[in-house]
Each structure stands twice: as structure tokens, then as C-alpha cells.
Design brief:
mainly alpha; 89 residues; globular
Length: 89
């Protein structure tokens, strides 16, 4: 991936990142449902205030995984949240 490539692979809400694009290099959403927080890229995550509100709700609700089979044994919430691109924190 070049420095000019703007492809996003991390969920803007929870930071889950499996390496697959959720927004392409042009910022167009792929409409992928996150197996962790269940947010769909491109739905409600197009401005920082919405992203923060959704993240706050998810964390306040216990940061539960929608599909636990994707959760690694050594999963750590703060490590995952650190994957969120800086402009969406």
C-alpha cells in the first residue's frame, strides 16, 4: 500500500481490522458489516460526531462482539481501538 493510498481497513467505530477494505482508496464505503460492533461501513460513520456517538454506545453497552468467533483469544479493547484512523477518533 502506498502512502497515497487512502484505503481504510479498520472499522471507524470499534477498530476491528482484518485487512479487508471497508472504504476504498477514494473513500467509497464497501458496506461491510463489522463482526465486532455490527456497524456497516458507509452507514452512520461518515462524520466524526456520529462515529463517536456509535462508539460510545458500543463501549457503554459492554463492547460486546456481534460475532464472537472472530474474537481472538488475546483480544484487548484498547489495542483494537488504537486501530481507528486518527481522523475518526
Amino acid at each position: 500500500m502506498s502512502m497515497d493510498d487512502k484505503t481504510e481497513t479498520a472499522c471507524r467505530i470499534c477498530g476491528y481490522d482484518d485487512g479487508e477494505a471497508v472504504f476504498d482508496e477514494y473513500g467509497v464505503p464497501k458496506y461491510v458489516i463489522c463482526p465486532c460492533c455490527y456497524n456497516e461501513s458507509g452507514i452512520g460513520d461518515d462524520n466524526v460526531s456520529q462515529v463517536r456517538e456509535l462508539r460510545g454506545y458500543w463501549v457503554a453497552s459492554g463492547a460486546q462482539w456481534h460475532d464472537p468467533k472472530f474474537r481472538s483469544a488475546d483480544w484487548d479493547l484498547l489495542t483494537q481501538l488504537a486501530n481507528i484512523p486518527p481522523e475518526w477518533r
